Amino acid sequence: MRWIRGIAALLGWFALVAQLFITSANVRAEERTVLDGLITYLSYFTVLTNLLAAITLTVPLVAPAARLSAFLERPTTQGAVATYITVVGIVYSALLRHLWQPQGLQLVVDSLLHDVIPVVFDLQWLLFVPKRSLRWKHPLLWLGYPLAYVVYTLIVGGLRGRYPYPFADVTALGYAQVFANTGLLLVGFWVVGMVFFALDHVLRSPALAVQLQRER
């Protein structure tokens, strides 16, 4: 478990740092400020969610006795992050992948953030997270994070005149269409969350997860 989670965490942090480097270079090329570059970097749901996944994987490894580790190890927390990172991969493949052709380091980072990390995180959820503890209400509660992101995007995007995703571009689409688009995405989050809820009730807890629970 530690090896798989450790490798996934390292890949995640590498991709996040590399993406920050790429974003900063692009911002400098456009003669924008460092602060604007940081805001741009933190405007993407992909970056924020991969950061959340990396923290979720890393903290229990480096500080297993910390209260935060116990929170991050909870099946509800793991299920929430698995839902978010899965949606990252699905939305990118369905709506965004065809819009550009990344090359070089950006291609590597793109693949890690949208393909590799979602798959590896879901794999560790299947293998190591105790099952049979999620409730039907949890996928609804998990919508708090994407809802907060929508509010954040509309406020920051409105102030800057820049939106991170074409389906959330108020300038091009107007508020009515953007609200419709984000409403559909929130339904998608709920559906993916319900899939994890269903799997949680179908699958048995892996032996390692049972052992870790007993040791605690």
Structure explained in plain terms:
79% of the residues lie in helices and 0% in strands. The chain has 216 residues and is an all-alpha fold. Helix 3 packs across helix 4 (67-73).
Low-confidence stretches: none
Main beta sheet: strand number and arrangement? none
C-alpha-based Rg, rounded:
18 Å
What's the shape?
Answer: globular
Distance between the termini: 16 Å
Number of domains: 1
Strand percentage, roughly? under 5%
Structural class: mainly alpha
The total count of helices amounts to 11
Indicate the percent of residues in helices.
over 70%
E-strand count: 0
Average pLDDT score: 92
Write down the secondary-structure element order.
HHHHHHHHHHH
Oligomer: single chain
Descriptive key words:
216 residues; globular; mainly alpha; 11 helices
Task: Describe this structure in a few short sentences.
The chain is mainly alpha-helical. The chain has helices at residues 2-29, 34-41, 45-62, 67-73, 75-96, 104-128, 138-141, 144-160, 170-173, 175-202, 207-215.
What's the structural blueprint in terms of helices and strands?
Elements: H1 2-29, H2 34-41, H3 45-62, H4 67-73, H5 75-96, H6 104-128, H7 138-141, H8 144-160, H9 170-173, H10 175-202, H11 207-215
Helix pairs in contact: 1-2, 1-3, 1-6, 3-4, 3-5, 3-6, 5-6, 5-10
